[in-house]
Amino acid sequence: MSKKDPYAALRIKEFNIFLVLRFALVFAWSMQFIVIEWQVYSITKDPLSLGIIGLMEIIPALSMALFAGHIVDQKEKRNLLAICIALFSLISLGLFLLTWPKIVEDWSTKTVLYSIYALVFFGGFLRSFFGPTIFSLIALIVPKKVYPNAATWSSSTWQMASVLGPATAGVLISFIGVHWSLCIVFGLVMFSLIVLFQIKKKPILNPKIGEPVMQSLKEGLRFVFKTKAILGALTLDMVAVLFGGAVALLPVFAQDILKVGSEGFGVLRAAPAVGAFLTMLITAYIPISKNAGMKLLVAIFGFGVCIIVFGLSSIFWISVVALFFSGVTDGVSMVIRQTILQIKTPDNMRGRVSSVNSMFVGSSNELGAFESGLTAKLMGTVTAVVFGGTMTLITVFTTGIISPTFRKLDLTKDLEAHENDD
Predict the structure, then answer these.
(1) Which of 26-35, 59-68, 88-97, 217-226 has the highest mean pLDDT?
(2) Most CB within 10 Å of its CB: which of 5, 28, 82, 291?
(3) pTM
């Protein structure tokens, strides 16, 4: 399985099983998020309510992230993921019940809204475990020499699910309504749980089982902050996602600016993921490890430009194209970042490093949603999106100037070293 083989990771049976369950999970999660966004904005007609969804998820996600990483490094990964999926199914079931016609009729709008926020809050705790567990499980399924290829296919699967999930949600909201759309989400979650048990239990590679929590957390943070490649990639992506979070305002654009309804909303929401997915398929054949630092800077700069174009557009097809290319640039960024994390992280610290990653990047999606909702409330939706894209450009310029080491980052030698590890 040479590193030049674009299908190296796909030749491993358990990795294919992993891709199926990841597709089902991400499809369900992204579909559920879209349905909830649509329902909440339909209830409130307030863009700030969309920001609150992000805030309700980021508070528990941030507060639990480091502790979740410690627990992941101490536990067997497959069974831990099974527990996470089972709890996710309870959230999906709860949201399905909250949209039951009888409950909608008997409960007040405020009670339904606050109940949705409560389930999203619980999902934030749960999400802090998902990322580290999945990141660690991949490394136990594939050998080190195919980590970059596995990262590409795993990210591509994530993006494909992110393409189909929102698009499907937009169509289903129109045809079968919010309630039965959430029923499909619940079914997908249960399917992923069944598929997971086709993967065997994996060994725990951490030699420090039972290590005190605070000592474990300090060690994880110390590793991230002293590894400049990881710290630079996470910081850059975090700020870009934080200020470029225009996706959270798509219900406003779909309903009030572009006036394209739920079907158009699904297309807009899927456009970035389509771009990212196609880019990731290309990177499976054309590795982008050479001059990775500069390529990451260029990609995030392009992302900022696309967000500004989208914010200024009042024409549907221009908005779709802008979002598509924002996904193309984001896809390059994601592959480079995931490759850096997989290559630079020791096996016994994957949970903690992935948790720090979720704090920097994953949680910034939710914080970015809150920032977008708040700035839209204060300065208007279009101005808020353009402001976010501009801040992304400023971040790229600043990083490129003050960090020449990151600008010159090249992963070629690291990949060659891993090729000989096995």
Answers:
(1) 88-97
(2) 28
(3) 0.71
Among 204, 244, 223, 158, which residue's Cα sits nearest to residue 356?
A: 223
| Token pair listed for 270 | 């899927």
Dist CA 222 CA 245 (whole Å): 29
Backbone angles phi, psi at 228, to 5 degrees: -60, -35
d(CA 113, CA 98): 9
- Residue 256 is classified by DSSP as I
Query: Burial code of 369-394, b = ≥16 C-beta within 10 A, e = fewer?
Result: bbbbbbbbeeeebbebbbbbbbbbbe
Kindly state the greatest CA–CA separation across the chain.
Answer: 65
Hey, what are 124's tokens?
A: 């934030």
- Highest-scoring range by mean pLDDT, 221-225, 289-293, 307-311, 382-386: 307-311
Task: Return the SS3 of 76.
Answer: coil
CB 91 within 8 A of CB 28: no
Distance CA 289, CA 295 (A): 9
Please write the tens of the pLDDT for every residue from 190-215: 999 999 999 998 877 666 666 677 77
Structure tokens at 401: 């100037």
Closest by Cα among 123, 140, 10 to 73: 140
Measure CA of the first residue to CA of the last residue in the chain; give whole Å.
11
User: From the CB of residue 258, how many other CB atoms can be counted at a distance below 10 Å?
Assistant: 21
Q: How many CB atoms lie within 10 A of CB 63?
A: 13
Cα separations in angstroms, 95 against 27, 309, 363: 16, 35, 22
**Whole-angstrom Cα distance, residue 19 to residue 22?**
5
* Torsion angle of the four alpha carbons 309, 314, 315, 317, in this order, in degrees rounded to the nearest 10: 40
